[in-house]
Specification:
The protein is of the alpha/beta class. 39% of the residues lie in helices and 15% in strands. A 5-stranded parallel beta sheet has the order 2-1-3-4-5, with helices on both faces. Helix 4 packs parallel to helix 5.
């Protein structure tokens, strides 16, 4: 089975000008959502990253950092919400927490790999579970990489 995105080809990642980056920084300090002011290009021209974590602080930090770099960021706070968001719009990358209430990250990973439309999306596990067994389990289930919290942006 070939990745359907390869047939379409990838577009270059949209990067913001220095003026837009300073606007994003100012908005961050004002406590507003930076990406709401940075929608100059249509969403389908930028790389879409889905950030999934039940910790709103982690989601906000990653969302702002990735939006600042020019990515179109979608967020989900539960495994069920993440699966729904991938049905609505298939992302180019998923940053996925392991430990969430209800449907955990490992189960979300298995379900995303089982669906044809999402089977080839790169998925990076971002979690506090740092044992070798946890890393091996995540990679064996199909994660492309495994980042342990805390991390530096």
């Amino acid at each position: 089975m070939q990745d359907p995105r390869l047939q379409k080809g990838y577009r270059p990642i949209y990067r913001h000008s220095a003026n837009q980056r300073s606007k994003a920084s100012a908005l961050l300090f004002e406590g507003r959502q930076a990406e709401s002011e940075m929608q100059e290009s249509p969403p389908n021209d930028r790389t879409v990253i889905l950030v999934v974590d039940d910790d709103r602080h982690i989601v906000d930090i990653l969302r702002l950092a990735l939006a600042y770099e020019g990515y179109d960021v979608t967020t989900a706070y539960s495994g069920t919400d993440a699966l729904q968001k991938t049905l609505d719009r298939v992302p180019h990358l998923v940053l996925l927490d392991c430990m969430m209430p209800g449907l955990d990250g490992m189960e979300v990973l298995v379900r995303l790999r089982a669906r044809e439309a999402t089977a080839y999306i790169p998925i990076i596990m971002v979690t506090a579970k740092d044992s070798i067994a946890d890393r091996v389990a995540g990679l064996d289930l199909g994660a492309n990489d495994y980042i342990v919290k805390p991390f530096v942006l």
